[in-house]
Amino acid sequence: MSRNSAGLSRQRIVEEALRIIDGQGLRRLTMRRLGDALEVEAMAVYHHFPLGKEQLFDAIVEYVTDATPRRPAEVDDDEEELVEEPAEEPPPPWDARIGRWAHEYRARLLRHAGALPLLIHRRPDTPAALRSREDHVAAFREAGLSGPAVADAAAALESYVFGAALTQVRSESPHGAAEPETLERLFQRAGDAATDFDSRFLAGLDALILGHTGVRPAHTAAPA
Amino acid sequence: MSRNSAGLSRQRIVEEALRIIDGQGLRRLTMRRLGDALEVEAMAVYHHFPLGKEQLFDAIVEYVTDATPRRPAEVDDDEEELVEEPAEEPPPPWDARIGRWAHEYRARLLRHAGALPLLIHRRPDTPAALRSREDHVAAFREAGLSGPAVADAAAALESYVFGAALTQVRSESPHGAAEPETLERLFQRAGDAATDFDSRFLAGLDALILGHTGVRPAHTAAPA
DNA sequence: ACCTGAACACCGTTCAAGT
DNA sequence: ACCTGAACACCGTTCAAGT
How much is the pTM? Predict the structure, then answer.
């Protein structure tokens, strides 16, 4: 932290970039504007992301996708260190684990809606994502599935959660062609009562699990 | 078609733009490059899209999203004209209609994978999209649903199809963080046989319909 | 190691002008 | 009506230089 060090770090840069994206939109995220927000010359960012904006985008996607909050006091480090996990409680039932993941992942996607276009052309192969998928496989096995049905169910789960978040963002977007009637109004005309996004997401999640396992889940509601 | 008219039209511009997107990626779609591909100065595009690139993007999204092929011989026109539909065959069963739409929509999204980031922040309120949704509502009613469950099922269907296509594109993308293990390999380790994307999509679609309606659909397979 | 400042090629868009 | 050509503000990135 000498005088001419602006205290930049990859994490601080990513968080400031996300603040710009969430506040002004992805197209307004500019290296120069990012530098301004960090109170630094734009070119300073290149010292932390030598491959430029594309590498910054990769880091943003990883940040949005992965739940893992970093310990803030530590120096930024590229290597994954194994951390001892002292907790030894019995894991929740399989449907609770799936429900919990679904709500958390959806919330993360919705919180950074402006960054979602970046996700589409980047592999979701982060360690955290793979750990989640391993747990989905285990959960559907506990639900009684076996063989290819396990992978089918896990893939469908991920597709649904991802698609539901993106569909919601889409329908809330300002842009659009000439709009004679909106999706919501069509649904209101069709159904009796309108359902809000949260309830609809849960209804679809439960139906999906029921369709794959034959069991109507009982522990998938969002936490209070 | 006088000598100094290059024969430009909104449709021709959109199709050329999509060719660039599909071939080189969205980031390489540039007004100047687009002009080159059309053998015209870049600024000629602004005569057909006075609001600039954003309006061009809107048109691209509409083109990708809507199935409706335009009659090629007609002059480009903004107004929707009512066309008499002489066909009077009985409509297919509800599950066949849903399956047909799901496969077609997915195919359109996969065909123009490079343009998908544009979809996320644009309302899906085109006339064709609304017509599809009306038919989904009708189909789920025919399957026995009523009340809010109808809208829940229709919304879940759209979320799943959209999410499955995007998830596939994502997993096929070159980009990514350090990749110790890919999703496919994880699934292969978990399940016995690997399922390809098409079969997995159909399995998830059937399970979703089963979960919402209680009926395992029999007519959702892709056409040969 | 970390940041600055000038420079370069390229971009979206405006505007006056041509036909 | 349809397209051109020059111009302007802005962008991502390189590179040599500072400390």
Answer: 0.88
